[in-house]
Amino acid sequence: xxxxxxxxxxxxxxxxxxxxxxxxxxxxxxxxxxxxxxxxxxxxxxxxxxxxxxxxxxxxxxxxxxxxxxxxxxxxxxxxxxxxxxxxxxxxxxxxxxxxxxxxxxxxxxxxxxxxxxxxxxxxxxxxxxxxxxxxxxxxxxxxxxxxxxxxxxxxxxxxxxxxxxxxxxxxxxxxxxxxxxxxxxxxxxxxxxxxxxxxxxxxxxxxxxxxxxxxxxxxxxxxxxxxxxxxxxxxxxxxxxxxxxxxxxxxxxxxxxxxxxxxxxxxxxxxxxxxxxxxxxxxxxxxxxxxxxxxxxxxxxxxxxxxxxxxxxxxxxxxxxxxxxxxxxxxxxxxxxxxxxxxxxxxxxxxxxxxxxxxxxxxxxxxxxxxxxxxxxxxxxxxxxxxxxxxxxxxxxxxxxxxxxxxxxxxxxxxxxxxx
Length: 421
Description:
Elements: E1 13-22, H1 27-36, E2 42-50, E3 53-61, H2 70-83, E4 87-94, E5 104-111, H3 116-128, E6 132-140, E7 145-152, H4 156-170, E8 173-178, H5 182-185, E9 188-191, H6 202-210, H7 213-224, H8 230-239, H9 248-255, H10 262-271, E10 275-283, H11 284-294, E11 298-307, E12 310-316, H12 322-336, E13 343-347, H13 353-358, E14 361-365, H14 369-374, E15 377-379, H15 387-390, H16 395-405
Parallel strand pairs: 9-10, 9-13, 10-11, 13-14, 14-15
Antiparallel strand pairs: 1-3, 1-4, 2-3, 5-7, 5-8, 6-7, 11-12
Helix pairs in contact: 1-2, 3-4, 6-7, 6-9, 7-8
């Protein structure tokens, strides 16, 4: 094995070779075959293909061996590009790229659509904080447009604060996450259920069968806003269900609707080796079925008491409330052998806040204002699988995994996902 090359000195002559034109097979190989005749060392490479047009940039040391000159290299490269009806630009300089500033972040921008105006506003805000945009690339074009900015020169927290304000004004979702290996190292994802994994509030589905839906919905809304103690509100709402026949459980299960993208999120995470769980202030009568249907690793919720085929209006066992959700996140992480710093929590209500703050990454999904302000990042588009983009997973990677696995869409008997995938 050859010894590692010494770090490039800042005064070493270098050339930036830029190639533009219509993409076709063999361009990259052809350029390096051309450069190989001059015994140059490759320092950096960047290639982008957009709508069939290639931009290929290569930073190399200036030719010194074999009596070749920079002029000969320029002439040879230009002749090669002309033969392929491409364009070339070669810029002389010294050393490598300038060092990136301290403070590294991934800024993910979600738009449906993503407009030039909103992109300009985000870029200007990054600049105003003292940050530099080192790279931009698209993560997804479906179900939303998602692009990622690699930013340096500013710490993550002030950047997040500035962009959160800008995003609220222009109506796009912006997530700012500290760069580093931990982003892809997060191995456990734990979600709230009601209005997160599913579109419904399960207690309200039960209440509709008991004829008290409006009364229950009002108490639920106040609890999610943090205006009421969750445990007290839970007991008050469940008491209204007393006397319901236990057969209502199957009816409610059939009424549950998965959030758009929920299947895709869970399926992709599982294929990537993540463990996935749910914690719910709802009921095991529903979450147990979801655990089986989605292949979840963990599930915890409250349990409705049923005696002699009737709901008693009480819950039994440990209450899953705001503190309980955080406690269960820690328990799941311990059972999974995953450090808490490598966990992701997703939720929408005030009773999710402790869990979101305890996780390595807390994501507020279509959340109440108090939750959006307190979470690490917020997603406000109605597709749960957009959380994948916050982890640096592209839509293309999701679709390739589906193709390799020969995935088939679930039957109509399974809970609906709101859209394909």
